[in-house]
């Protein structure tokens, strides 16, 4: 007699392990056309408001690429960014953030569960870095909106915990 439960369990394990992707999530040796093709696909890794917000700030603060940052911004924010000559100028004057090196993390300890079909999200980012060998920690609340099926940065709020050195 065949034990259907054990056969079903084995089939489920085989099917689930076959669904895994054996290739690493990030590679550094991709050519430019391959990266552009991946960016144009419908289901990219940055199809979330959190990762899109990180990509926006990474373009400005790490890569010094204002054109890449504009790709992640709503039209009204793009117009604001057009008024700046460089990404460093945006970071220094618009965001009031300047780093020699920075690490951007997503604060998700008190994360509200988003509805699956919503087109707006709030993302809290933590910027930990150094400027002139002094450790700097900043936070920003980023209001994200979905435009044409793609998450984009709409509003950047000031650091709620910032203190002036008076």
- Work out the helicity level: 25-40%
Q: Give the helices and strands as they follow along the chain.
A: HHHHHHEEEE
Number of strands: 4
**Structural class of the secondary elements?**
alpha+beta
Poorly predicted ranges (pLDDT <50, ≥5 residues)? 11-46
Radius of gyration: 20 Å
- Strands of the widest sheet, in order across it, are 1-2-3-4
The first-to-last residue Cα distance is: 82 Å
Give the percentage of residues in beta strands.
Answer: 15-25%
**Structure annotation, total helices:** 6
Categorize the overall geometry.
Answer: globular
Ordered list of secondary-structure elements with their pairings:
Elements: H1 4-18, H2 32-40, H3 49-61, H4 66-71, H5 75-81, H6 87-94, E1 101-107, E2 120-131, E3 134-147, E4 150-156
Antiparallel strand pairs: 1-2, 2-3, 3-4
Verbal overview:
- It is built from 6 helices and 4 strands, in the order ααααααββββ.
- The chain is an alpha+beta fold and about 170 residues long.
- The chain has a domain of about 90 residues.
- The chain has a 4-stranded antiparallel beta sheet with strand order 1-2-3-4.
- β3 and β4 form a beta hairpin.
- The protein starts with a helix and ends in a 10-residue tail after the last strand.
